Amino acid sequence: MLKIDIGIPVYNEEANIKTLLESVLAQKEDGFIISQIIVSSDGSSDKTVSIARSLKNPKVTVIANPDRRGIARGLNQIILKTKGDVLVTLDGDIAIHDSTFIKKLTGPIISGSADLTSSAIAEKLPASFYGKIVFVSMLLKEVLFGVFKKGNNVYTCHGLARSYSKKFFKSLHFPSSVGNDMYSYLRCVSENFRYQYIGNAVAWYKVPENYGDHKKQSTRFFNTILEQKKYFDSNLVEAETKIPERDYALAILKSLPILINFPIHSIAYFFLQLYMRLRSGNSKQGETWSIAASTKKND
User: Mean pLDDT per 10-residue run, the chain (299 residues)?
Assistant: First the structure.
């Protein structure tokens, strides 16, 4: 029977880790078995480790690192401990509501048509006005990224949920926590592996509800492309990240229902995006960063 290993790198995810682990353990195993779930804690100072261990399930292994070094270490630890045929990595603050999520995400890996896949993402509607601005921004981005290269591109390779073939993950080592999702995509295409976006495997998450948390996430994103040029040819990075003007034009047309339904939030987002970009050059983040607290607790 084909074996799938699940890896979850975490830092202070006490609000969500039990629910996430239970949803993974409840996945329908059809043509495969989930052989182990590896939780790598990056020096968590809350109850993440004890909650994960409290499940007392033999499939769950917890690595309790005593210090913080960033998500790259956790991913690399998970890769080294993976013995299965397919590896799936999940963010610790997502929610999975579909019992066939793992089957859908890994389907192209199992069939041999892809070496790296990424799930679709869906935002839970926030309560705050600021949160709704971010929510609308993500709806607009998802339209644009769905147009670019018909969805199979660097921007749909999300960190929330990815799966890897054995021949790919065995050669994979993350040098940096910044943009680890983009790094996995660029490694995939630069080494002639195959990537596929899985639109029917949906990982749910919460968007930032305030400016402080949004700024933390935006700073990471703005620094990501520069970070990747340390490891890949600049021409490759530019070719994979630059979206053609015709795709922007088509995405605007496809986004008209969103713009009409959320006019105030859409206008606010464009000004906010401009402000964030102007300030991004003055903000840097290294291997570790402070968490966006308003994105935790995913029910």
Answer: 97 97 98 98 97 96 97 98 98 97 98 98 94 96 97 96 98 94 98 98 94 80 89 97 97 97 95 79 57 62
The structure tokens listed for 98 are: 């579909």
The tokens for 219 are 């700073």
The residue with tokens 């105030």 is: 264
Helix 71-81 vs helix 180-190: crossing angle, to nearest 10? 50
- DSSP letter assigned to residue 245: H
pLDDT number for residue 215: 81
pTM of the model: 0.92
